[in-house]
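During the reporting period the student researcher (J.K.) took over the structure-prediction task from the postdoctoral fellow and processed the backlog of single-chain submissions. One of the processed entries is reproduced below for the supervisory committee.
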Amino acid sequence: MARARRSAIDVRPCADLEEFGQAVFAIGQYFGLEPTEERMERFSKNLPVERMHAAREGGQIVGGAGAFPFEMTVPGGSVRTAGVTVVGTYPTHRRRGVLRAMMRAQLDDVHERGEPLALLWASEETIYGRFGYGMASLAGEMRLPREHSAFAGPLERERVPRLVEPDEALTLFPRVWNAVRPAIPGMLSRTRNWWEYRLLYQTPGEEGAGPKRFVALERDGRIEGYAIYRHKPRFTDGAADSELVVVEAVARDGPATAELWRYLLDIDWAARVGASLLPVDHALFHLLASPRRMRFRVGDGLWARLVDVGEALTARSYATDGAVVLDVVDAFCPWNEGRWRLADGRARRTRTAAQLRCDVSSLGAVYLGAFTFEQLARAGQVDELRRGAAARADAIFGRTRAPWCPEIF
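J.K. obtained the following structure tokens:
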């Protein structure tokens, strides 16, 4: 019997909200998401319909891949970034080349739009390396029992926490975010729609958690920090065993950070406080008397892909004025391949002999400052063509505070 011929996979942007919903459902079905018109209308407030690519076979949508338009903080600056999201293939079309076709169309589109960088959170960390993404940050999570929440030293409270409604939070919280974001690599620009329809929107309780609560931390009428959290009530053997789930907590400086977390750790009826997507250099390591009681677990965070090597490297700042020549391997986006000389804050094509050779995914790993060329060389991911070149490159890139993105997009 003759084998049925497969139709070619055609990938192009969605034309309307109906196609948008079908493309989102490619991944949404695995997480129990129903693409209702109301939900897709809300989602499209931040993910433009034309930034959602749909893979089609015989006119039927069988996969989807979207990209939020962001500005991301990088060391010393900001860069236009495609925030890759809702990537999935229908279960009827596994192992058919759908994902590769979508990645091809999406990265070509990002390149044509002049966005030098693409960024994502990987549901499965084995998928995206073959498309040039490198693990660019780490993220932590903790579960701290209340009885171990004491601080190492006394805390003088000077700020007043105040519960606020979403409409007031929409005015106050962005002031803190916009003040903090320029100093922390990995933090993303947020539009009013992002705040209203993602951060402050009351989604149904997750795993038994209640509605979001919003607190503003103020001093002399000026907001200096905010937190978004949920109560997760539970009783075990007749005794309260509830958890306070911190969705996001951001403060302008150290004293405000200490007071904000003291407020969160002191909330009644919480046997423990849990938080995810924390920076690996979080202040709690130094604030808590027993930091090991957090049982802090670290995993991969952001994955970064340099779509335009020259523009991406030039967009960030460097610690020294030295020069290094990189031989970049990029099989998926060949326009990046070849030798690049990074000097005086600019990356340009060169014929000079290379000092380091690496895949573009390794550049993604070092780009935000979470990892170094020497670390990658020890792992066999960077070839040192000239002795000491990895150390010199690390001196140029410098070490910044740990990259941090406090939400999965």
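The committee noted the following: The longest helix spans residues 98-112.
J.K. will present the remaining backlog at the next meeting.
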